[in-house]
Structure formats: structure tokens, C-alpha cells
Amino acid sequence: MPIISSIQRKSGSGRLIIGLMYLLLTVGSITMVYPFLLLLSGSVKSEVDIRDFDVFPKFFTDDVVLFRKFESQRYGDGWGQIEKFTGTVDELPQGFYLLQQPKSVPHDVLNDWYQFLDQRSSWPTHFLSPGHVSGNMTVAELSLQFKKKVLELYPNTPKTFLFGDKGSLLNREDWAQRSYHPMEGYLNDVYQKMRTDLPLRYFTVECLQGSYLGFMRPKAKSEKALKELNDRWGTNYTNINQLRFTSTPPTHPEQRKDWWAYVQGRLSCRFMSFSPPLMMKYREFLKARYKTITKLNEEYGTHYSQWEEIVLPAEKNSKIAFADLEVTFLKSLKDPEGITIDGPDFRWEEFLKQKYQNDLAAFNKAHGSTVTRWEEIRMPTLHYDWDIMMKNRKEIIVEMTTRNYKIVWSHIAMQAKALYNTVVFCGLKILIHLIVNPLAAYALSRFQPRWGYTILFILMATMAFPDEVQSIPSFLLIRDLGWLNTFAALVIPGAANGYSIFLLKGFFDSLPKDLYESATLDGAGEMRIFTTITLPLSTPILAVIALSAFTSAYGAFTFALLVCQDESMWTIMVYIYQLQQTYNTPVVFASLVIAAIPTLFVFIFCQNIIMRGIVVPVEK
Amino acid sequence: MPATLRISLSIILLAVVASLAPICAASDEKQSTSDKVKLKVFSLPPQTAGSISEISQYRITKRFQELYPYIELTSSTKLKIAGQKEETGVLMSIAGGTAPDILKLNFRMSDTYIGRGFLYPLDEYINQMPKEEFSRRVPSSIMPVLYREKTGDFQDRNKHYWMFPNRPPDARGLKYRREIFIASGLDPNHAPRDWNELMQYALKITNPDKGIYAFSAITAGDSASSLSYQMYPYISSTGATAVRQRPDGTWEAAFNTEEAVTAFEFIDRILKIEVTSQSGKKLPICFQGNASETSRKWNESKIAMSFAELRITSLGDSSAQSVSIAPIPKGPTGFSMSSFDCDMYGIFAGQKDKKVRDAAWEYIKFQDSEEARKIITDTVVEYGFHRSISPSWLRKYGYEEIAETCPPEAELAFEHSLQNGQPEPYGRNCQFIYPMMTFPIEKIKKEVSINLSMEERRARIKAILDETVAKANEKMLGKITPEVRAERNITAWIVVTLGGVLFVYLIYYIFTSINSKRPPVLTDSASTYKTRLAALIIAPAVILVLMWDYYPLVRGSAMSFQDYNIMGNSRWVGIDNFADILHDTEGFWYPLKNAFYFCILWLLLGFLPPLFLAVMLQEIPRGKIFYRILYYLPAVVSGVVILFMWAAIFDRSQEGILNKLLALIGIKPIEWLQESDGLFQVLFRMIGITLPNWVPGPSFAMFCVVFPSAWAHLGPGCIIYLAALKGIPDDLYEAADIDGASFWHKVRYIVIPYFKPLLVINLVGATIHGFKSGGAVLAMTGGGPLRTTHVIGYEIFERTFMYLNFGHGTAIAWVLGILLLSFTAYKMKILNQVEFRGTH
After folding, report:
1. Residue A586, preceding bond cis, omega within 30 degrees?
2. What is the Rg, in whole angstroms, of the alpha carbon atoms belonging to chain B?
3. Looking at the partner chain, which of B18, B95, B321 has a beta carbon nearest the beta carbon of A218?
4. Cα nearest neighbour of B613 on chain A
5. Which residues of B773-793 are buried (b: 16+ CB within 10 A; e: fewer)?
6. Neighboring chain A residues of B534 at a CB cutoff of 8 Å
7. B837 touches chain A (CB under 8 A)
8. Which of A314, B176, B640, B812 is deepest in the core (most CB within 10 A)?
9. Rg for chain A (alpha carbons), in Å?
10. Which letter, b or e, does each residue of B644-669 get, where b requires 16 or more Cβ atoms within 10 Å of its Cβ?
11. Interchain contact, B20 vs A472, CB within 8 Å
């Protein structure tokens, strides 16, 4: 019954008090709910927006935020990657979280670009590479798919192999990088299959311009250095990004020097082709190095029958073939004469030239640009990214929202044993708590033995001692008994609890005595009395004991981890804890939301039982 | 106990447990004579790897297995405890008897590991190693670290080899972001070479409009105590050192020289100087926050310079081309000095099988061999990260052409640091030194204004340093003459005896109070049978309690009279542990005082509010269950995450959630968890009054530590009161209504008397909890700022877990326990006077 009577409730002051209570409760519950909503909202975010503490994630409505996240995923959370793949004249801000919507351009730009992409069947593999494959402390969209595929096709793959520390298995294809070589073995088969089925929107177009800029940028770090470069090159760039990579060596000697430094020292030979005289020179170089063609075939994994057949190395050749060309042969050349570079950048230029029939003015009109030479044209990478994002907006948002949960699920679902362990651990703990404590309390309450209070004292006195003193030797005892890595170590210590027994005894004492008496008169045995009278009447308090046993067992990971270091004994909580060490905050948030669900449901559905089971001390 | 604290506390307990259990023979199963020797190494690299170092590590391991097919490598499970360093996992496995045969350690840990007997001497192996190979692989500068006496061993005065490097030493250098230099109009090829330049650069770089900082410092979270480590290059570059070895071989703190004053003065300026932009915005030149914020700012290119640990195989950020490495800037006396560390392996002493030890040595020896170095170089080149490896390795292992294209600056910086470096402190008790040096930095920041004259500043800094060094030396050297020791032991005996008497009396008191009501004794024969039956039924509970409560209690108390060692050979030291802690102002009484304050705050914030909440939930006509669930929400979320959330809410910057709210009503930002001012100072500052330093009031940071746990406890805490309110008989209210009692009257004369036993029991419980807890401190402040949140629970954790000083830890726990026992005794008495009643 409420303290304020129903009459008072209707009076002015009564209403005021109740109104005030509602106000206080609401303000307080906002502080309770707010962090929980932050947690929920954070669990669908990524590193880009996790620091925006908002209850409703911005990317649902704000396309710019979505774009930042999208680009961050597309380029594997690496700022260097996006610079490399865009190669624009405009300076990019530093960091995904500062990215803005690209300036709007005429429709024709993207129309032309899509037409250009339609020619991709004639391109070599290394012009395109899938984005969304890697991420920093998270699993990227395609990596997640890939893992699933590997498990489908090769169910015997060791789980640890797929869900190792790193969380990321795929590496981004990086064709312009010399050291990059595709994966090998059966994993590559799976990957290639996935790659073939992948929609176009996942692919990024290799950008040699960006790669060259990455090489040149350090040489024009300050205004002074840029001026020096301009002087040297005979140009008047106001921004190093205006510099253009050309497909053939520039004629200006200084420009040629830098171009050559890049091609000789950095660029992968996949993008090169040699003029016939240079090709001859290359074959001679190989002849001198390997003497016989058999030896060369052996080293290169090729099947040439004579020297004249030799072409530049391809992916099926061994890495030695690449190393010989890229390191030794190119180094021996004094001048780049005869080398031509082929890449999407140049093909795009060529495509536009053809389309606008060499009419720069027409091109400028259609594309709303002001270029003075065809060489100044850049690929509209960022516009393209924005466009595909807008076209697939819904799908992308759904993917972003669910991915952290998928990652957590794939991490936990792999551990079937963990689920079993958790159920067994919680079950055993509840069972043993429900056996030991109520029995002891019943005996004390029903039989009232002479030494009952002494026993009660013995049972309860330990709560006077600081836990610190006992916990260490308890651990030693578990170890000496050989209980490490057993369920016994998890459930036996602490199974008997003096305070619980005291509470239970109090509850049993409060049950009506005449029930027992009439049962005894009817000739019921002690066992029967206990099971038919005491237990049914005590459901609420037994439920309370069971629930507290459940929550402590479910949440206990530190103790569980200490006494059960063997992985085969780990519970779900331990895995979630392990996950927290290797993934970024948003994924951790998702794992915590999942972990909170059982406890929350138990509370919501059992709160009335809990309330009835609570016994309150009152003065006699 | 709220979930937050329960989890935090269990981390502490776990850690304490982990650090103390003696080793059981880890090698039982290995004695079965199979052909293969099973070797458990520290960690095995994953087969599919991300980082270059993992890939090369994997290849080295593979090559090792080719060379030594009879050795089968396994690895110990690797799971870290949040926020703690890697060693936690090893200590846990040592305690659990699953320790690896090969332990990984660095300079700072070396003393503890040797002293605690974790390491098996390597003399027999190293003596067989050719002289030139040894000198090639072990730089003479690290010899004193790995070849030395066993600490604290009085029988064996000989030096032994204890560990062996698994890679070349790591040095420190200055890494900086080129693009920020460019944007600030600085030459990115010209790193600041001395302090003058450094400061000039910093002022130019710091940009309040764009939020760009010149430096960063981790001043919050659990790494905050390493602030002095982050700043150490400044200290060493003046020629000052943290510690110095005395003629008798012991180490003492030495950071109070004139040079050190110069360094601390400079550090203080770095932490305090602000730049004002034209638009009037202000920004300090040094970003200050917790570790994750700092690394995020660096990645976002918002921080220009930072001291970095350089490794020969990864000089600088290999991922970012825009990061360059330079030597540590020179101090005012013209030299630049840094410190270096080295990752090393040792053989676990618990491994008794010689065959396994031999295999372990082969493994250790192979790690930094020529062949392994070549594998690393090959891998790095293959993956295109050759710019991050030392060019000298490239030249040595056949990549002359590539070496020429690599920038030499990083290697020069690295060489420079190694040559001009001093080893990280590695001597006895040196692990205390960084927290010890962090204290004066914080104190200077708080107490020595930047507006004072230079002489005045120096004088005050000197005074602070002198005071800290004196304290540090007392802790490090334990300089106690036998007379003082005897004197202290006498007081300790008195206190312990009194404590013992109190203990016995309290037990007696509890016993009598609980036995004060004897039940009627039944004598008929049926009751004899029933008594026996009762005994049978009760037996399991009693046996369990005896086994899991009493036995550990007795065994645990013995440890407080020992210099307890996890590896066995614990020494009895009598009363010494108690004598030490009772005379330790800093390490016992001060934390105890803080715990007292923590407890009061907990009672105010954690004990009373649930009661009010329960009354409100009882009164409102609608939505009871709805509100009840909402208030219960924090309890279902992991405790660690609640603290994390609140750490974000307590963000000290202008962007922090609370600071934004304050700004709305025109109040300047507060540093919250990093606020070293007292509660009153902060409150008065809000309304614009500056209180002098001598009226600080209790720590404001402590308030911020207690608040989140109290908040999370609100919902779960109110449930029992709710149940109790339902149990109040209706007729009491009805009678009061007839008398015309008001709401407050009914609360005063019906509810409170009815609640009295419950309130008293809960009050006692909350008090005990408040005194013991240390988990929230561990997670949120690490005891800082200026040790104002260093509570006794945290002190116990630090001593036992971080310094493996179990004897002291248990002694403190016992003193605390006996103090708390009186509360418990009172609780038992109350419990005995009440009866429990179901509410339905």
C-alpha cells in the first residue's frame, strides 16, 4: 500500500509530491537509459564515428557521415590507401572523419565513367581490385564473406586459422606494389571464386597517378621545396597534386629523372611494356644470367623453348622472375627509353580523347572542367565512390548496422563448446546452490538441534574476513586438489553460503507451523514433508537463490579464466572477453549488447518472483 | 555490491591470486620419454598473419622446426587482463601450473623475475657460446642487465647469466608528422634539434582553430602513472638520470639534481603553455588525455611530435610515409640522451627436465641468429616495407641496391639513440621509479605557477624533487638501521597483539551474541534420531565452509609473516611485514585515509539514493515496472563498459559531454578525473572564486571515481527496499490516516522504524564495501592525480600483483580486515536480534 493515502493523493500537496516524484524519476531514468543507448548506438558504428557520442547514429540520415564510413571501409581504414586510389588535384583532408561530399559535377562525368568501366572485360586483372577487404581491428565486409565461404567449401579448416588474433585474413590486392603477390593454395581458389561473383561496386580502379604522387609528395613538402621542384622541372605548379604521371618517359631531363626513379625503384613491372630493342636487351640479360633456357624455366616456372619467346613476367611465374626484372635488370638500365606504362589512368584519358574526338573544348563543356591539356584529366574516383554509395545506400546502411553483430556472432558461434560450457556451468551452479543451502537451512529450522546456533555461527563467521586473505589460498587448494580446468573448480568453492542459509532459515521459520503438525499427524515422513510442503511454499526464495547463482555464473569470467585456462573449458563470457582484446570499440560494444541480453531478459521476466522471494529483517 | 565493483574487484582478486600461487611441477607429463621434446614457448606466431613482424616470426619458427625436428613447439594460451601489461598472462600461467618453458621479459621486469626465482641460470649454455658470437649478439651496454647476482639471495653471491636478447635493443627517437610541419611552414627535413627549436616549433605548430597540438602526453587512465616514462627523454637529455647505482651495488633515486630541475621545469612548460589564435581560441601545446584518445589524435594527424620506441626492424611507422624519425632533441647542455630497452627470453626455472631446457636454449639462441635476421630482412623486403628496416641490415643480407633508396635519417637516429642511451632502469625496486617520477610532474603542474620568475620556479621545483627523491629512496632502498628496525618491530608487535586481542574478542562477541537465544533442548528418543538426521543433512554445507573458507583463511594468514615467493622457498620474516606497512605513511596510512573518504562518498552516493528511489517507485500510481526496468539497465551491462562510458562523459576537453553542459551555463571546463584540486576549490571555481591551496577540501577526482559505481548501483540497490515497503502492514497506514498524518509523518514514524534493522545491516555492508574497493580506481585513474584517489584496495593490488610483494599485500589486507571485523561483528549482532519475514 502506498504511503500517501488515496485521499491525500487528490489534495494539492499530494499531487505536487507525486508530480515531483515523476519528474525526479524521469530525469534519473534518462541518465540510466542514455549510456545504454550510447552503447547500442556505438555498437553499430565504426572507428570513424565512434567518438560522436550520439544516441541516434548520424549515418542513418547524414550522407556525408555515411560517405566517411563508406570510404574508410572501402580503403581498409588506411588514409594512405585513399590517397593512393584517388590521385586528385584537390587536397584531401587528413583523416576519414574530415572527408566531405565531393563537389558536384555534370552528369556526363559519371556517364562517361560508367561507359569507360563497361570496357573492363578487355582490361588485365591488375587494373581492378576489390575494396572492403581489410580493416583495422575489425573484420571487413568481404573478409567476413570470405571466411564464411572458406568454411562452406572446406569445413575442415581449423577454426583458429580463420578466427585468429588478427581477425582479418584477406590482404588488399596491391598490384602497383612490387612486393605484392596474390595468395596461394586453396584459399586463393576460394578467393578467386568470390572475386568473380563480386558486383562491380566493390571494385576500386588502380590509380598510378596517386601512387606516383605518393612517391613525389615527400620531395615537395614545403613551399620552398615546391618552388625548387618547379624551377627544376620548368613548371609552375601551385600544388604538388597538379603533377601528372605520364605513360612514356617525359622529355624534360629533370622530369625524366624523377619519372625514372619511380619506375625503376617502385612501380611493379605488371604495368610496364618494353619496346622491341629493350625486350632484346632483357632477353640478353637473362641469357647472361641463366646461360641455358632449362635453368631459366626451372627458376621461373615457365616453359620457354627458346630465348626469343620470353615475355615480361606474369602472375603464374615465380617471384624470382619479378625480382630479376624489377631489381636487377631495371637497375642496370641507365635510361628509361623504350618503357611504356599502361594503366587505367591512361586508358581513361584515351577513352575521353576518342569520345570527344580530340576536342578539348567539347570535353570541358560536357565535364564542366577547365583543363588545358588531355594530360590534366583525372579519374573521378571520389565522385564514383559517392555515386555507388548513393545508389546502394540502403544496402550499405543495413550492412554497416549489422556487421559488428555478425562479427561477434561468427566469433562466438564458432565455439560450440563454449555454449555447452556456459549451460553446464550455470546449470551445475544453480543445482548445487539449490541442494546444499536449502537442505542445511531446512534441517536447522525444522529440527532445531541443540548445536544449531553454533553451526550457524560457524557458517556465518567467515563473512567477517576480508576476501583478499582467502582468495589466494583457495586457488592453491583448487590446484592442489587437481581441480584446475574442471567444473568442480567453478562450482564447488562458495557453494555453501552462510548468509543464504541464514536467510533461508528465516524464511522457513516464517512458514506456518501447523502445516507441519498436521502433516506429521497424517503420517508423512520428513522427506515427504520437505518435498510436498516446504519446497512448494518456498518457490520465491529458491528462485532468488537460483537467479543469483545464474547471474554470478554467467558473468564470472575472471575467476573462470583463472581456474580454467584450458580453452576447452572457456565459457561464452571468456570468449567475449578475449574478443575485447582484439577488436575495436564498436565491435566490443556489439559483443556487450549480446552478452547483456540473457541477464536483461531474466530480470524482466523474473522480477516479480524476485520481489516475492526477498526476505526482510524486522525487529522481533 | 554493484556489478561494476564486483567485476573490478574480482579482477584485483584474480590478479592477486595469480601472482601468488606457487608453481606446481609443470613438467609431469613431459617426463614420458617420447622421441620428441615438447617445448612450450611464450607465443607462437599465427599462420595467417597481418603484420610483417608476425609473418617473419612465423617463418623463423618454421625454419627452426626444420632445423630441429625433434623439438615440438607449443604455446601457452595468451589472454591478457584488460589494461594490464602482457606479463599478467604469464603470471597467471605460472600460478596455474601451465607456464611456458620460455619467459619473455624486459629490463624493468628483470629484477622481479630473477629475484622471484622464475629464471633458470643460463651459465652452462652461454659459457659454450663462442666469444665473438656472444659479443656480436649482446651489446656490452646490456651486459649488466643479463649478467648479475640473484637479487635477495644471500647464499649465492656469484653472478649468473639470466636471460638472452631475442632481438637487438630498442631505442627511442622523436617521430613527427611531416604534413603538419609543412602546413605550419616548417621544413619537414629539419626536425627540432634542441629544446629552443623544439619550443619554437611547438608554438608554430599548435593551431587552436584546427585543433592541432605539438605534443601529447597520456595523463589519464591506467597508463597515467607512466607519464614520466613518456617524458623521460627530456630528463635524460639534461644529463640527469632516474636512478644511480651506489658503490654497494644498490640503486637509489637521483632525479633531484640541478639538471633534473631543468628538465622538470621544461616538462612543466610543455604541459602548461597555451597558444591563442587570432579568433581568441586557446589550445595547450600538449594534448593530454588517456591512451586511446592520444593514439587516435595521432592517427588523425592532430599531434605533430611524439617520442617513439624504435626497433631495428621497424624504424618508425611503416604504414605512414608522412612520419619521419629524428634523434631526441638536445638538452640545454648540448647532448641528447635517451634510454633503451631490449626484449629478452629466459628459461623458466620450474622446468626440471634438462632435455626441455636444452631445447629451450636452442630456441632462444636461434631467435636473433644471423639466419633469423636474414629471414626478417627477406620478409620485410618481400613485402615492400624495406624503408622501415635498418639499411645496414639490407646491405648485410644482400639488398645493397635497395639500401641506397632508403632514407638514412631513421637509422642515424636509431644509432644515435643507442650510442647515447642509458639502459632503462633495471635494478632492484626500479619498477617503482616511473610512478615515483610522475608524482613530481603532477605536483609541479598543480603548485608551481608558470608566471613565477625562473629562479622562484626552479627553487620550488627543487624542493618538490628533493622531497620525492627522499620518499623514493626510502621505498627503494629500504634504508633501515637495525635499531630502527627493532624499534619498529616493537610497535608492530604491540599493534599486532592488540589486533589479535581485538580479533579474539570480536569472535567471542559474535559467538555470544549469536548464542544468546538458546532453543529449547529436546530430549526424547525421536529427537536423537532427528538430531542425527539433521547433522547428516547439514554436513555438506559445513564441510564446504570449513574447506573453502576456514582452511584458506588459516593458510592465507601465514603468508603475512613471510616473504612469500610464488616459486617456493618462502622465508619467514616474523613481524617485519607489519612493521613495514605500519610505518609506511605513503603506502599505508595515506591510502587508508583515501579509502575512508571513498567510503564516505560511497555512503552518500551509493547507500542513500536507492532508498529514496524505492519510496518513489512505491508511491507513483503508474509505470512502476517500467521505471524499475529502466533503473536496472546499468546492472545488465558489463561493469567495465560502464566505467568506459563514464570516462567519455568525464572527458576533460571542451568537447566532453559534461563540459559542454557546463559551458551552456557559462562555466569553464573542469578536468574531472584529472582534477587535482579539491571538491571545494572546484565548486568555488565554478562560481568564480579561487580558494587558496590550503583549503582544498576532499579530492574532486575521487568524487568522479565513486559516482559511476553508485549510479549503477541505484537500480539493483532499491529492490530490497521496494520489497520491504510492500511488507509494511496496511493497517499501520490506515491508523495514521485516521490521525491525519502527512506523508512526511508517515515516512518518519512508520517507514523508518520499520526499516531500521534493514538500514543498519545495509549501512554496515556498504561501509565494508567502501573501505575495501579499489577496482573503480584501477580502471579510471590508476590512483592519480597526485595520488589523491590512491585507495587501500588499490594499494593491495599494486603491491601483490604489480610488485609481487605478497607478504606486504596480505599484511595490509589483514590490518584492514581486522578494522572491518568490528563492523561485521556489529552486523552479526543486529542479525541476531531480527527475524526475517517474507513480504508476501
Report:
1. no
2. 31
3. B321
4. A25
5. bbbbbbbbbbbbbbbbbbbbb
6. 443-444, 446-447, 449, 452
7. yes
8. B812
9. 36
10. bbbbbbbbbbeebbbbeebeeeeeeb
11. yes
Between CA A361 and CA A370 the distance in angstroms is 9
Closest CB to B519: pick one of A448, A494, A596. Answer: A448
List the grid coordinates of A288. 647472361
pTM of the model: 0.76
- Are B188 and A442 inside 8 Å of each other by CB? no
Q: Which of B295, B633, B737, B769 to mutate to test the interface with A (most CBs of A within 10 A)?
A: B633
Is the CB of A10 inside 8 Å of chain B's CB atoms? no
Question: Under 8 Å CB-to-CB from B294, ≥6 apart: which residues?
Answer: B216, B217, B218, B287, B303
- Decide if B726 touches A, using CB distance below 8 A: yes
Give the DSSP per-residue string, B684-715. Answer: HHHTT-PPPTT---SBHHHHHHHHHHHHHHHH
Q: Could you read off the pLDDT of B569-587 as tens digits, one per residue?
A: 778 888 888 988 888 888 8
pLDDT in tens, B134-193: 888 888 888 888 888 876 656 677 889 999 998 888 888 888 888 888 888 888 888 898
> With an 8 Å Cβ cutoff, is B528 touching chain A?
no
User: Three cell numbers at A236?
Assistant: 609552375
Determine how many CB atoms are found less than 10 A away from the CB of residue A93. 12
Calpha distance B817→B557 (Å, rounded): 11
3-state secondary structure of B351: coil
B648 and A CB contact within 8 Å: yes
* Grid cell at residue B120: 633458470
Question: Of the candidates B14, B49, B630, which has its C-beta nearest A562's C-beta?
Answer: B14
Nearest CA in chain A to B324: A218
Residues of B in contact with A566 (CB under 8 A): 77, 98
- Helical segments of A373-451, H only: 381-391, 393-413, 416-447
Angle (deg, nearest 10), helices B700-727 and B3-20: 120
What pairing do the DSSP bridges indicate for beta strands B171-177 and B323-326? antiparallel
- Cα B118 from Cα B228, distance rounded (Å): 28
Three-state secondary structure readout of A585-620: HHHHHHHHHHHHHHHHHHHHHHHHHHHHHCEEEEEC
Instruction: Test B13 with A467 for CB contact under 8 angstroms.
Output: yes
SS3 A90: coil
CB proximity under 8 Å: B 207-236 to A: none
CA torsion B573-B584-B821-A478 (nearest 10°) is: -50
Provide ipTM, 2 decimals. Answer: 0.75
What cell was used for B2? Answer: 554493484
Q: Is A304 on the interface with B (CB under 8 A)?
A: no
Report chain B residues whose CB lies below 8 A from the CB of A509.
835-836
User: CA-to-CA distance for A570 and A425, rounded, in angstroms?
Assistant: 10
Model confidence pLDDT, tens digit, residues B537-556? 889 999 999 998 888 888 87
Distances (CA, A) of A55 to A156, A408, B534, B660: 42, 22, 58, 16
Nearest to A245 by CA among A209, A207, A206, A205: A209
Owner of C-alpha cell 565513486: B706
Segment-wise mean pLDDT, segments of 10 residues, chain A, 620 residues: 78 87 92 86 88 86 94 83 80 78 90 94 92 82 86 71 51 80 79 92 93 82 82 88 90 92 89 93 91 89 89 84 86 90 94 93 91 89 94 95 90 78 91 91 84 78 66 77 85 86 83 82 82 84 85 75 74 77 80 86 81 76
